[in-house]
């Protein structure tokens, strides 16, 4: 199966592109922990290929605070510099990324993983590498939002060292090219084919 995993869906900006038939995804899994955003997604998208999940992926399973919930930059990291209102938060559920992938995909799947999750991207990549699941992912696009989090900023370099020489990963800076978000996602997907 050709599978797209969208981690950090917000209100569906990426879904608007990957749901288009010419991408030929058999299944699209979307992860959005914010209850406010998830409500919008549930009302907006009705597609048999799309599975919406009201939780986030990470390196652990459990509950955490999501600060500035509902806004585009919401994060589990309270020191993220572009949070609009840190006092506006909700408890959200996280699931360990490697465990979720083991339970929901198979060895022969062609998996595309988009990580735009406001700091959790490094937690996810580390988890996938440490558990041996990383190489099961065909294509990864990562947006290093840790650059906006003082306590986490060092992790971008650490992750890039961990994935050095791997050919299945792209940074958003190198592949997200175009006038609209949909154009940028399409460009990445065309590079991968």
Topology record:
Elements: E1 2-7, H1 15-18, E2 27-31, H2 35-44, E3 50-53, E4 56-58, E5 62-67, E6 89-96, H3 97-104, E7 110-115, H4 120-130, E8 139-142, H5 155-162, E9 169-171, H6 172-175, H7 181-192
Parallel strand pairs: 1-2, 1-7, 2-3, 4-6, 7-8, 8-9
Antiparallel strand pairs: 5-6
Helix pairs in contact: 4-5
Quick tags:
193 residues; Rossmann fold; 6-stranded parallel beta sheet; 3-stranded mixed beta sheet; 9 strands
Describe the 3D structure:
The protein is α/β, with parallel strands linked by helices and 193 residues long. It has one domain: NAD(P)-binding Rossmann-like Domain (Rossmann fold), CATH 3.40.50. The protein is 30% helix and 23% strand. The longest helix has 12 residues, at 181-192. The radius of gyration is 16 Å and the shape is globular. The model has no long low-confidence stretch (mean pLDDT 97).
Tell me what portion of residues adopts beta-strand conformation.
Answer: 15-25%
In total, the number of strands is: 9
What's the architecture in CATH terms? 3-Layer(aba) Sandwich
Radius of gyration, whole Å: 16 Å
Widest sheet: strand ordering? 3-2-1-7-8-9
Tally of helical runs? 7
Distance between the termini: 15 Å
Q: Give the CA-based shape.
A: globular
* Mean pLDDT score: 97
How would you concisely characterize the structure shown here?
The chain has 193 residues and is an alpha/beta fold.
């Amino acid at each position: 199966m050709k599978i797209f995993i969208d981690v950090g869906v917000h209100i569906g900006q990426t879904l608007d592109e990957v749901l288009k038939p010419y991408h030929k995804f058999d299944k699209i899994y979307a992860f959005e922990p914010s209850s406010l955003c998830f409500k919008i997604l549930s009302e907006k998208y009705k597609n048999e290929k799309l599975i919406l999940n009201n939780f986030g992926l990470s390196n652990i399973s459990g509950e955490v605070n999501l600060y500035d919930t509902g806004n585009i930059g919401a994060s589990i990291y309270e020191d993220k510099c572009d949070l609009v209102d840190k006092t506006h938060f909700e408890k959200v559920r996280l699931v360990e990324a490697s465990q979720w992938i083991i339970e929901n995909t198979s060895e022969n799947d062609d998996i595309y993983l988009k990580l735009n999750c406001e700091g959790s991207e490094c937690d996810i990549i580390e988890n996938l590498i440490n558990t041996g699941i990383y190489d099961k992912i065909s294509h990864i696009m990562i947006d290093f939002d840790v650059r906006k989090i003082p306590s986490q900023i060092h992790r971008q370099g650490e992750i890039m060292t961990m994935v050095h020489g791997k050919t299945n990963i792209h940074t958003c800076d190198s592949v997200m090219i175009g006038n609209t978000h949909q154009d940028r996602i399409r460009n990445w997907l065309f590079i991968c084919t």
